[in-house]
Every structure is written in C-alpha cells, then in structure tokens.
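Progress note, project year one: complex with succinic acid.
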Amino acid sequence: MQDAIDITVKPLSRACGAEIGGVDLTKPLSESTVRAIKDAWGKHLVLVFRGQTITQEQQLRFAAYFGELGDRKQAPEPLRGRAEGIYQDHRKILLVTNIKVDGQPIGAFGEGEFWFHIDSGYTPRPYKYTFLYAIELPSTGGNTLFSNMYKAYEAVPPALKAKLMGRKALHIHEYKRSEKANLAADISGIPHFYHPVFITHPDTGRRTLFVDRLMTARIDGLEADESEAILEQLYEIGERPELIFEHVWKLGDFLMWDNRCTIHARTDFPKGEPRLLRRCTVEGEPLHE
Ligand code: SIN
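Model obtained:
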C-alpha cells in the first residue's frame, strides 16, 4: 500500500490543474494517500497522473474512493444512436471514442471538437467528478481544456451578478458536441434541467458560475434576446484564456476533475484517427445557489 509521503503535486497552470506524482493507480491506496489526493484536488480542481497502465476495475476502484460511482446515462430512444457504444460492457463505464467496429460506434462522443460543457449538467444531480484514462490517441489535437469556474464567478461584473442572483438557467442535452440545442423545438423528450446560474460548491462553500456554451440554453424569466446576450457574456468570461488549463494527452494519462467548479471542452483532431479514453464518474447531488 502506498503512503501519502510518496506524493508530489506540481501545479500545471495559473488557472487550474496539477500533476500528481508518486501514485500507482494499479494498487489500493491508504486513507492518508486518498486524503492527500483530495486536498490537492480541492486546490487545483483538475489532477493529472502520468504513465498509468490500469484496467477498468482498477479505474473503478480508484474512483470509488471519492464517492458513489455514477451510472452511464441512457439517452432517450430517438437520440440513443448518438450516445451508446457496442463495447461498453459495464454500466459505470463510458468509452469516449470515435472508433467504430463493423460500422458501429464502440463508445460515445465521436469525432472532433467538443464545446465547453459540464458532464451531465442537464440532469437534477450532475456528476460530481469525472475520471478519464487515455488508451489510444490521435497524432495531434483532441486536447482537453478546463476552465476554473470559481475564477469565472469572480470575474462576473457586480451589476450582472446582482441581476442573476436567484435565477436559474435551462440546460439541455441533445447529444451534440458543437451545436446548441434547438429551443424552438419540443424539448419534452430531450434530457433537460434548470440549475441556478451561480451555485455554491457543496464541499468548499465557494460560489461558481454554472453555465456552459454547449448545454445552457436559456436564463429563466428573461426575454429570449436578453437571455442570449447575457449567456454569451457569461460564456466569454468562462472561456477566457487566463482561466483555462489545456491538457495535451499522452498515452497512460489519467485525469480527474470536479464538474461543480470546472467546465471542459475538447479541441479538434484529424478525422478518422482513433482516439479512445475510458471514463467513469461519481454521482452528484442537487445544486443550490
Ligand atoms: C468528456 O467531455 O467527458 C470527454 C472529453 C474529451 O474527449 O476530451
């Protein structure tokens, strides 16, 4: 069993992100090691472990140190083709990949760019945490960007903060990656949920901005034009370069992030070059301002 004494923490950017050294994820971890990882996570929001070779079971065992594992969300029938893969043999695992076998996707999230989003932000209890492990990578691109939403909240002008306090926003998931949901359409059969525009992180008690370009569609109670203009302003704040840590993947990288205080996106990569990452999550809880 490893001990916390072996752990090193190297910050990776001014925005967020730290590389953790001295931890072998194939092994069970001591309580003090898990505590040290949690401490680093609270400070840096996104943790990176390099050079890991882990099985699905080892990934799930590690993630379970941080809470109840999340089930993979089932898309409603008409959207299922965009979300399900034939090689996903465990309900806690999602394969993030563009790989197809016999013309069928083996996992989800396909090719190309992915706009900033919150994992399962369109549900009543968005995942607290996501864990992603790199198995196959394209020659270039497919980087994952993380933005620090504590800093984004701080950057919202005071008058806008006052205007948006107490308001909720609608989050919709149509299982697209770089296109907004169609608000003019009937969304009753499409996963959606209203969350406060600002949430208080349940563990740290700090406020964060809880909107993202891909899935946040409308601020409740505002006219459409005003809602759109304000959301655009909020996306622009949340996507400021100084708030972002960009992770350039290497094989064997294992990342973990907190969805209550970060949003993430993916850069484009050459179409058809295989990219495969294995994802699991920890269940979340209802979120409040
Ligand atoms: C995800 O949003 O969970 C996947 C991000 C990625 O493919 O880099």
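The radius of gyration is 18 Å.
Residues 96, 109, 114, 119, 130, 144, 264, 266, 279 surround succinic acid (CB under 6 Å).
No further modelling is planned for this target in the current period.
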